[in-house]
Structures are given as C-alpha cells and as structure tokens.
UniProtKB/TrEMBL annotation:
EC number, as in UniProt: 3.5.3.6
Pathway(s) annotated for this protein in UniProt: Amino-acid degradation; L-arginine degradation via ADI pathway; carbamoyl phosphate from L-arginine: step 1/2
Molecular function per GO: arginine deiminase activity
First-tier enzyme category under EC: hydrolase
Name by which UniProt lists this protein: arginine deiminase
Lineage: Bacteria, Pseudomonadati, Acidobacteriota, Thermoanaerobaculia, Thermoanaerobaculales
Top-level lineage group: Bacteria
Gene Ontology terms describing biological process: L-arginine deiminase pathway
Catalytic activity: L-arginine + H2O = L-citrulline + NH4(+)
Length: 288
C-alpha cells in the first residue's frame, strides 16, 4: 500500500506532518521573526492541539516533527522546508534566512518515516513550500518572489522532470517587501480539481487566465479578509476544507460553491505569526 506521495492539493489527506509549538515559538521576538506580536505559548499549544484533533476527526493520520530546533520559531510551519512527491521528498532551501537549518531536520524526520529523499536544493537556490501549488498531479505552479528564486525554480524543474511534472512560473508582487511573507499560497488555495479560493487582486493576469483555461472556478476573498488569511485554506478532501475562523464572507462563498467548511481558532498560532492551516501542515500522503 502506498505510504507517501502528495502531488495534489485536494485529494483526501491521509497522512500529515505537524510540529507542536515549543519554547522557540513562545519566546519569539516579533521584530526578528516579522510576527504581528509575540505569541502566548500555552494558548498556541491549545490551538494546535485542537487543530490536530480536527485533522484526526477528518480521518488523517497526524505525525509529529520533533527534532530539536532551538532558535527556530517558524519551524511549526512544516509546509515550507520540503515537498513530498510520489518518489520521495525534495528538500528545499529556505528564502527566509532565519529558517535555514529546518530543511535537513525535516528531511531526517521524513527519512525516519520511510520517506526517501529524492533531491535537495543546493547552492544559491531558494524555494519554500508555500510557493509551490499543485494544479494537478503533473503540474506544479511555482511562485517566483522573494522566497523562491530563479535558481530554485530551475533546480525544482530539473528534479521533477523525470517524474513527468511540468513547472509553471507565477510572478509574485512585491507586496510589503522582502522581509514580509508573501507566498503564492498566501493568495490562492486549491479546494477541488476545478475550484480555488483566491485574493484575485494579487494574482498576475497570465495565471488567472491559465486557471480559467483549465476550468477552475475562483471563489474570491474580499479585501477585508485577506489580512486574516481568508485565502489560506487547507483541503481535507475535494470541497471539504479547513480555514481559520473569523472570515465569514469567504466561508459563506465557499459554502455556496459546495464546500463543507471546518474552522479552527488561530489567534496565537496563526494570526500573530502569519501562518494558516496550510502552513502548519506538511502533507505526506494524499490518496483516493
């Protein structure tokens, strides 16, 4: 039976890797980490435990990344240092310098879980999981911005080519600049093969046209719900999804589009540290 492989954003989520907030997160200097304010650790842990309970209730096996990573507050965002393909993991290289070192640590955890390493980005390449969006099993959209550079895209393309995967470059806007976290998945999440939730003003026209050509319906997040991570929605299965509470307009629009929407509280865990449900989870296995 298949034990890993996640070349999809929407197939039923069977196995996922998470990291419970630790002292590095609770003591994070907001200025250094570019957080809104310092998280309260006990509250963040309670919110994370509740998130994990939702994932398990949805039928997902939850595994923990517990390698010691002192001074790495962002390590709770397990989505970013790696992606998992049908042939193994690709260890990325973080564009945010404070996060360097997370990549090898999560690679070790995955190898301990019998997920082999397919490739590792090297040299000046940078790429983060939040910029990598599977449009289908064989097409990976790559956000080209401050966190994922041209060399990262080149090395990813080379690593994925033997798997029959095509990469599509998506130019990202400047946003609030290099220190801010603007990933492709800050703007769009896939919720079904033909459905995505988006903050469309930040998407480049060629990419919007590509989505339209693929027959992908777009549920738009209003301006007022973009800062509270309205577009950051984790698909648990096609049109069954998990998002942070407090985005009622987006939730209603998703439900109108036929989605079952679950929510979690993320005041400490997500809003203060600017990382939503997709950021907090690294899918290891998605399968029908």
């Amino acid at each position: 039976m298949k034990s890993f492989g996640s070349q999809s954003m929407v197939e039923p989520l069977k196995k996922v890797l998470v990291r419970r907030p630790d002292e590095a997160f609770g003591s994070a200097d907001p200025k250094h980490w570019h957080y809104i304010s310092q998280p309260e650790l006990e509250g963040a842990q309670a919110e994370h435990d509740a998130l994990v309970a939702i994932l398990r209730e949805a039928g997902c096996e939850v595994l923990y990344h517990e390698v010691e990573l002192p001074e790495h507050a962002d390590a709770i965002f397990t989505h970013d240092p790696v992606i998992v393909t049908d042939e193994g993991s690709i260890i990325l290289r973080m564009g945010k310098e404070q996060r360097r070192g997370e990549e090898a640590a999560i690679g070790k955890t995955l190898e301990d879980l019998s997920v082999p390493t397919l490739a590792t980005l090297e040299g000046e390449a940078t790429a983060e999981g939040g910029d990598l969006l599977w449009l289908d099993h064989d097409t990976l959209a790559v956000g080209r911005g401050y966190r994922t550079n041209a060399e990262g895209l080149r090395q990813l393309t080379a690593a994925l080519r033997p798997l029959g995967v095509e990469t599509v470059e998506v130019q990202l806007p400047h946003g609030d600049g290099p220190v801010s976290c603007l990933h492709l998945m800050s703007i769009i999440s896939m919720l079904d093969h033909d459905l995505a939730v988006v903050h469309i003003p930040l998407l480049p026209v060629p990419f919007v046209e590509m989505l339209s050509d693929r027959g992908i319906e777009l549920v738009e997040v209003p301006d007022e719900e973009y800062p509270t991570m309205g577009p950051n929605v984790l698909a648990l299965a096609p049109r069954r999804c998990l998002m942070i509470e407090g985005n009622p307009v987006t939730r209603e629009r998703l439900e109108t589009a036929g989605c079952e929407v679950l929510t979690y509280r993320g005041e400490e865990l997500s809003l203060k540290a600017e990382g939503g449900a997709t950021c907090l989870t690294r899918p290891i296995l998605r399968s029908t």
